[in-house]
Target: Putative major royal jelly protein
Amino acid sequence: IARSSVRRTTKNSTMNGSLVAFLLATIACIPIATSVPASSKVQVQYSWKTFIFEDLPHSPYAKVDGYDYYISKNILPTGISYHDTTNCFFFPILRWHRGIPATITYINPALYKDGSSPPLRAFPTYVDNYLPGWFGVNDLGAYDYNIYATDVNTKRNAKSVEKIEEEVPSETNIQEEIPSAAEDKKKHNEEEDDDEVRKKHSSHHKPIHSHHGGQYVVQVPVPVPAPPPKITTTTTTAPAPTYKPSYKPSYKPPYKPPPPKNPTRDVYHFISVYFTSANEKCSRLFFLDHGTVVYDNVEIFIRRPLIWAFDIYECSDEGFGYPPALRVSIPDSVVERPAGISYFGIDMYGNCAEFYVYITNCFDNRIIVYDNAKRSFWYFEHDTFKPGAERSLYPGPLPPEDSYDFGVLGLIIAGENSNSYRDVFYSPGSSYGLFKTSTQVLRNKALAPGSPTSPDFSFVGYGGQDGEAITNYDSESQVLFFVHLVTATLQCWNTNLPLVKGNVATLFSDLEFGTDISIDNQRNLRFINYFGHGVPYWEADIPSNAYYRFYKAPIDDLIKGTVCDPRNV
Model:
């Protein structure tokens, strides 16, 4: 599942430094109920006046960069992922305010009753969420090596993606030569100095330093796992989804022995995470660390964005003890403005090492593709990725212009199409119109970057003048859900119908500011609501009396009897 959303800042404003925050945060700020939900089908699962962190390793009042380590009013989860196998909620918290002890957190719902206010815990530990300048963390370098997802059938050596110019052939029985760690590090440093990268991406084009004055340098090299001599790649095609309201998944991931009690490893130092995706097939949590924090509307670029994945087999600190299954930095060759990187979707087509990642960049107006099997990056550019791309196709009076000038932002991987590939829906920040391509196109590096008018990227339609939306997709009913900022509504559209206003149903209204939408394997829709008394979360001064609710609603009950109900299609 991939989500989409919108942010609150102009492309050329003084908040350009906070584009990641703005982009990835306002997106999180979509209207949701200011009072009792309009529908009795929507239930409050949890509520908070403030978010509390459990077992903080330091006093909340300990000073980091001159500010409190924990500032309660600055804590708002900006995304939701639910891992059904371990019954675990993951909440990323974008660091666009100070006083956030962890940028990835989790809750074990088995320990807390509905209606309670569960505390947050850091994933996988608090130390892994320390920033430079915090508690003795004086320097932080970019990772010189990448680790790729592997399983019993497919294993490849961990070379840096930035150094790979040709794709690895897909045939079996390939043996690769692994350079020593010292040789690989020397070659990396000769090709690209990390300080130069920071200069290029800094909003002020100046060398970036930690807040305490120490320059970031490489700290500890990451060990490279040795691969077996042969690689076997298999490809499978999943059956087309069928609508089964009573469906309960029974899949369990293959058993793996628990990790050692006290594994020796590097500290990860996650910088800022907005979006997470829990994968049931491989029992794995994916997320993208933007490598940037935003304080006082100033963007501080610390290191390149990183794609991460961790195996998870228990909703506890011990269950998160496995080393990363995937850690790969996004190279400069596919990104001009890292602050525009927003959402991603995982397109898994075979075993747990065979997948693509599709990433939107609303400032570069690109969709970036990462092929894990071949460890290769490329990108697509198209006229439909540009800000307001749908306006020239609008059939009636034009909707309001997008004052934030965001290009392609939201991205959803939906169900299979006629070619047994999957549809990929996307939209610009305005979200008035919806566009579509296919995984068949995005997977093909030979087509990249493509023609700006290629028919491989097409217009789907409009649902009315309801813009700036968070979006999610339910594969069972084949329904797309939207939470709109402009009209403060939760709406749905059955993807088997034309996208026109009459085929869009309003399910929930009277909203204030809501965050990400999540759909679990039991097909419950969840979202967090931030009640800021009229002050959006992206504002610098969040009210001290703001509060939060975590809602849950069964999808079949929500859409029953509406135009979205598959029984009515």
The first helix runs from residue 19 to 26. The chain has one domain: 14-568.
